[in-house]
Amino acid sequence: MIENIRKSVTANWPPPTNLSGIKNVRVQIRFELDRAGQIVGKPNVVMTGGPEKTQQAVAASALRAVFRSAPFKNLPIDQYDVWKEVTVNFDASDPAN
């Protein structure tokens, strides 16, 4: 389930291109879902590597991918505790990560 959520998000992520140091940027986004698969609250974003301006551009594109993917469908309600918290890692050097 979590892996399906991650795949859905990364499929909606066209990382920015032609930015200085982009291959070094990693972004991690953690978010919570309600029982309907909607994002609850504000996702937590952690950025590492590369120039700050590039980090911000990659993080913004990753956040758009998360929100574009919601609501997440076909999640088994009886396993809500398994998928209510999601972490997705974005690696600008490998968009398919």
Layout: helices, strands, pairs:
Layout: H1 2-11, E1 26-33, E2 39-48, H2 52-69, H3 80-83, E3 85-91
Antiparallel strand pairs: 1-2, 1-3
Helical region count? 3
Q: What characterizes the major β-sheet?
A: 3 strands, antiparallel
Report the uncertain regions: none
Task: List the helices and strands in order.
Answer: HEEHHE
- Rounded mean pLDDT is 94
> What is the CATH architecture assignment?
2-Layer Sandwich
The CATH topology, please? Answer: Fusion Protein Consisting Of Minor Coat Protein, Glycine Rich Linker, Tola, And A His Tag, Chain: A, Domain 2
Question: Strand portion, in percent?
Answer: 25-35%
- CATH C-level class is Alpha Beta
What is the tally of beta strands? 3
Instruction: Give the distance, in angstroms, between the N- and C-terminal Cα atoms.
Output: 17 Å
Number of domains: 1
Task: Tell me the radius of gyration.
Answer: 14 Å
* Strand order in space, largest sheet: 2-1-3
Quaternary structure annotation: single chain
The secondary-structure class comes to: alpha+beta
**Morphology call:** elongated
**Helix amount:** 25-40%
Protein name: TonB C-terminal domain-containing protein
Organism: Rhizobium lusitanum
